[in-house]
Amino acid sequence: FSTAAAVEEHITPPVDVQHTQLLINGQFVDAASGKTFPTLDPRTGDVIACVAEGDAEDINRAVAAARKAFDEGPWPRMTAYERSRILLRFADLMEKHNDEIAALETWDNGKPYEQSANIEVPMLIRLMRYYAGWADKIHGLVVPADGPHHVQVLHEPIGVVGQIIPWNFPLLMFGWKIGPALACGNTIVLKTAEQTPLSALYVSKLLHEAGLPEGVLNIISGFGPTAGAALASHMEVDKLAFTGSTPTGKIILELASRSNLKPVTLELGGKSPMIIMDDADVDQAVELAHFALFFNQGQCCCAGSRTFVHERVYDEFVEKAKARALKRIVGDPFRQGVEQGPQIDEDQFRKILGYIKSGTDSGATLIAGGDRLGSKGYFIQPTVFADVKDEMKIAREEIFGPVQSILKFSDLNEVIRRANASHYGLAAGIFSNNMDTVNTLMRALRAGSVFVNCFDVFDAAIPFGGYKMSGHGRDKGMDSLKNYSQIKAVVTALKNPAW
Ligand code: ADP
Prior knowledge:
Elements: H1 4-8, E1 22-24, E2 27-29, E3 36-41, E4 46-52, H2 56-71, H3 80-96, H4 98-109, H5 113-135, E5 141-143, E6 149-157, E7 160-164, H6 170-183, E8 187-191, H7 198-209, E9 217-220, H8 224-232, E10 239-243, H9 246-258, E11 264-267, E12 273-276, H10 282-294, E13 306-310, H11 311-327, H12 346-361, E14 365-368, E15 383-386, H13 393-396, E16 403-409, H14 412-420, E17 424-425, E18 427-431, H15 435-444, E19 449-452, E20 467-468, E21 471-472, H16 479-483, E22 485-493
Parallel strand pairs: 7-8, 7-10, 8-9, 10-11, 12-13, 12-18, 13-16, 15-16, 18-19
Antiparallel strand pairs: 1-2, 3-4, 5-6, 6-22, 11-21, 14-15, 17-20
Helix pairs in contact: 2-8, 3-5, 3-7, 4-5, 4-7, 5-6, 10-11
Bound molecules: adenosine-5'-diphosphate (ADP).
């Protein structure tokens, strides 16, 4: 498959685009400006559809709808059980339409259809059922007081939540954001990534069919500096959640603080170490490290993008990592068995090729790939660099593409120091069966997720987020609920403290 011809033979996506407008107050509507923008097929760069381009005025309309739905609508007032049932019905509807949703996701994003259909959509369904389970279990507590007071702590929804998501897992990011916000009873204005607006519109329609009241979830397609910035700076938005790059995260935080000091959660970039110890079964280690980096075309914020390999197994690992990359099946993502589709767009494609050049220029040894695949679309050869040094750009900066960097180390303390010597702290991987080594590493690594003998395990109940410049706050799991709850202490004087 991994030939120029294979990436240029295209399969017609088995789905039609149905929704291209903005979703405001339960209705699909055009942008106030009437403007649209094209969303492209990453296999070819051709236009899939033109989508309404939301900007500040549409954000105003969407926030007004969300505000009204929060202040006056049924959503925060209905029983938690009823909210839970709507989320469960939504999950059932998505299950019915699994394959269409997956096809839309693959068409717009370029990821293998088998992964959309068997991983991403099922994970979104699982997430909705997980948060449906939480909806009626979110409650406060009564705490003891020193004086004659009865003290209750109430957990309330925050209000209107703004959410800005990226293009690498359009549906999963949608679910990570809306799940906890809805379970807690908030209303939402969500801006999708300009590269991948289609799948969120489709599933949001299903959520309304499941009974979501109008105005509770508003979806704006559009660009970051216009629609995104308007949402981050809006005075009527009570909380903002963002997943994307670290530079954009800094802008978002600034916009939030300059406007109304809305609390912000950020899930940002990474440069995660994947540490292969000397007791490793090299074949298994190669497979895991390959998955940790190449999964989703390398477009994962937590990608294991610094593969640290112990010197005792280094030579064997490098040979086998090269062989594995050369075997990786790149092709049309709708074709069965394809492991890697195109990168998301021209910008990312050029950026990744720039990093590959930088790797070669800085003296790393290119052992596989190194160029584009085919002459159309954004396919890149699975690329592996050996002999990478910590100070090289490819070892410090997030590449967000199918480029593995292998670094050699000789002892545990050294690898801890080097793995932690990054501004990022999103994830880390460990491959070892030595219990003491694993325990030392998992405690020493400064990362929000540590995967031991596995990688990229994204169950709904597992919290996900970063240390350091990889962000703050957690998505998924019960910790995510904290992002979307306001805490109220109610102190009541007791007339008769004896009772
Ligand atoms: P990437 O570089 O991978 O596209 P970004 O962090 O730029 O990552 O994008 C993630 C999300 O942030 C997208 O929805 C994008 O539109 C949005 N975004 C980009 N720039 C801004 C901005 N200045 N203000 C608000 N949102 C933005």
